[in-house]
Amino acid sequence: CMRWPCLETGSQRARGRIRGAVGKESRGRGRGQRCGERGSEMLEFAFVVTMLMTLLLGIVTFARAYNIYQSITRAAREAARMAVLPDCATCGNNYIDPSTGVTEANSAIFAGAVSPALQAANLNPAAVLNYSETVGWLDAGDTEQQCGVTISFDYPYELNLPFTTMNLTTIDLPARVEMRRENQPSGGSCP
């Protein structure tokens, strides 16, 4: 403060207010600012911008996570739709994949439905975790059981939230879809 003197002293401010009653009154912090307050606006701006940018990045990050969740749910729905339909109309109950022992590596459903749907959403199908395709009785809460397919898998997503404890944390987004088979089996057995 010694090198750059303050703009006004206390008595000068008082005289300015008296003169301001007749002419223009100086308002705001610019003219009556004290020496110790010179950098406070920049510091306040830095704090506010940091908080606002963190909030904005959080909104974008969680919006992207929700978008990925919707995309993997759509991929699971497409896979379940493909799995419940017979492979031809006159073949009876022949389905694309067998009822047991299906993994991501040997699944025609994964290759024909999940992988293209994920690629259409710019997601990597190789990143899918815990892929499961099961055929069995669906629990619909009804008295009548229905045979169907359950497709489930997880997809990893890395949160990028600077200045938080959640920065670079990977979460697994789950996708699980159940769909009843088109031709219900007769005789009370679900393959």
Layout of secondary structure:
Blueprint: H1 10-22, H2 40-84, H3 108-120, E1 129-138, E2 146-159, E3 169-180
Antiparallel strand pairs: 1-2, 2-3
Helix pairs in contact: 2-3
Biggest sheet, spatial arrangement of strands: 1-2-3
Series of secondary-structure elements, N-terminal to C-terminal: HHHEEE
Oligomer: single chain
Detail the poorly predicted runs: none
The biggest sheet amounts to:
3 strands, antiparallel
What portion of residues is helical? 25-40%
- Per DSSP, the total helix count is 3
- Give the structural class: alpha+beta
What is the first-to-last residue Cα distance?
A: 86 Å
Rg over CA atoms, rounded to whole Å, is 32 Å
Approximately how much beta-strand content do the residues carry? Answer: 15-25%
What would you say this structure looks like, in words?
It is a single chain. By secondary structure, this protein is α+β, with helices and mostly antiparallel strands. 37% of the residues lie in helices and 19% in strands. The chain contains 3 helices and 3 strands, in the order αααβββ. The protein has a 3-stranded antiparallel β-sheet, with helices on one face. α2 runs antiparallel to α3.
Task: Describe what is shown at a glance.
By secondary structure, this protein is of the alpha+beta class.
List the defining traits of the structure above:
191 residues, alpha+beta, three-stranded antiparallel beta sheet, 19% strand
